[in-house]
Amino acid sequence: MTSGTTRGLPRRTARTPEDEHSRENALTDVHPDTAPASPLTAAARAVVPLAAAHAAAADTDRSLHPDVVEAIVAAGFTRHFAPPGACGPPGTFADLLTAAAELGTGCPSAAWIASVCASAGRLTGLLPGAGREEVWAKGDGTVVAAGLIPAGTAVPVPGGWRLTGAWPYVSGSGFADWTLLAARTEAGGRTQVRVFAVPAADCTVRDTWRTLGMRGTGSNTVVAEAVTVPAERTVPLDTLVSGASFPGAAPCHTVPLKAANGLTLAAPLLGAARGAVRRWTELVGERLTAPPAGVSGAPDRSTYEQALARSEGETDAAALLLARVGRVADEGEVDEAATARNARDCALAAEYLTAAVDRLLRSAGTRAHAEGEELQRRWRDLVCGAGHAALQFAPAARAWSFSRDQAQPRTGAAGQASG
């Protein structure tokens, strides 16, 4: 897997016009992938220039430009994991990783929306059949968002449930056709968390998304007031967490939530980091090729070489971890040990990517911290995205350690395996 980043640092020498052309290539060229691109990745690459052109405005406006949203939908992200029969055969996690990372090189917020809406669409496959059909009645253009924090309550009514609550941090809530909302229910003296598919017309969106980064995702608060949801549009959250099969299910629909959720969140961060390496190389390249000036004199080239080597190396290492997560998830039947390892690897990848871009920002000089500078915007996006609960290393490490201990044979006092 190639890094999608730049070729290295230029040297300060007398330059001919040909040298200048080579210098521009060395600073800005992106390594092409050697394997043929999937249709989703090819479509994502076509969206990158548009998303990049609107990235600064998305950060300021706290929402994506409508043309970018339309392009994400047309590219196939939101239907990538649609249930069989809704929009053609479902895609793979490996393809989503590659495509979302590609889009993230242009705009991390656009990639986040593309990836998490793909994930939300996957979860609709576990609704009862009639519910799936209703959600996807619009076909290819359907957009699903999700608020899986159980921030609401639901009470049983004839034929279904009455749902009330306010769900924060729902990415894509401003343009989604449907939103999956988690709520606590009480039935037979037992508390259960269920997920409800609610059409946009039955909800309101409260403007609450004012954050350090990922501002363009418009991850605002969705509010439902006594909305009636029929029984065919709800499923226990445990079913999503554990994964389940249904008639015609593809492998992607049976994957436990925690085995794949981190991938859909980390993939946009991978693209953000690759874009940060590119932009950093442009900024530092200008500094290294400029005549020495000021009190500090000529910059120390080795400092920049080390920053680039570490940061691009960490970015490549994160890509390798995430690629394995995608391969495991695409096998379909993922056990508890593999689920725990996937979650661990995604959290570790997020740490690598955040560390890489933090180093780049600190080493790029004051110019990189300017309000309108792309590099600091990408740094903010990385910090914000990596702050998601699903990408925290401590709980992921705890779950992985527990699963590993469970898999080890137990020994008695005499050192022999106990039964």
A few lines on this structure:
The chain has helices at 17-28, 39-53, 55-61, 66-75, 93-104, 108-123, 129-135, 237-242, 257-289, 301-330, 336-363, 374-386, 393-407, and strands at residues 144-157, 160-170, 178-187, 190-199, 204-206, 220-230, 234-236. With 419 residues, it is of the alpha+beta class. The chain has a seven-stranded mixed sheet with strand order 5-6-2-1-3-4-7.
What keywords describe this structure?
49% helix, 13 helices, disordered N terminus, Butyryl-CoA Dehydrogenase, subunit A, domain 2, seven-stranded mixed beta sheet, alpha+beta, 419 residues, Butyryl-CoA Dehydrogenase, subunit A, domain 3
Question: Which strands sit side by side, in order, in the main sheet?
Answer: 5-6-2-1-3-4-7
Would you count the extended β strands for me?
Answer: 7
First and last CA, distance: 44 Å
Strand content: 5-15%
| CATH overall fold name of the domain at 1-14 and 255-290 and 300-408 | Butyryl-CoA Dehydrogenase, subunit A, domain 3
Q: CATH class of the domain at 1-14 and 255-290 and 300-408, anyone?
A: Mainly Alpha
Helix content: 40-55%
Average pLDDT, to the nearest integer? 88
Q: Could you give a short account of the major beta sheet?
A: 7 strands, mixed
Rg, alpha carbons: 23 Å
Give the topology, please:
Blueprint: H1 17-28, H2 39-53, H3 55-61, H4 66-75, H5 93-104, H6 108-123, H7 129-135, E1 144-157, E2 160-170, E3 178-187, E4 190-199, E5 204-206, E6 220-230, E7 234-236, H8 237-242, H9 257-289, H10 301-330, H11 336-363, H12 374-386, H13 393-407
Parallel strand pairs: 1-3
Antiparallel strand pairs: 1-2, 2-6, 3-4, 4-7, 5-6
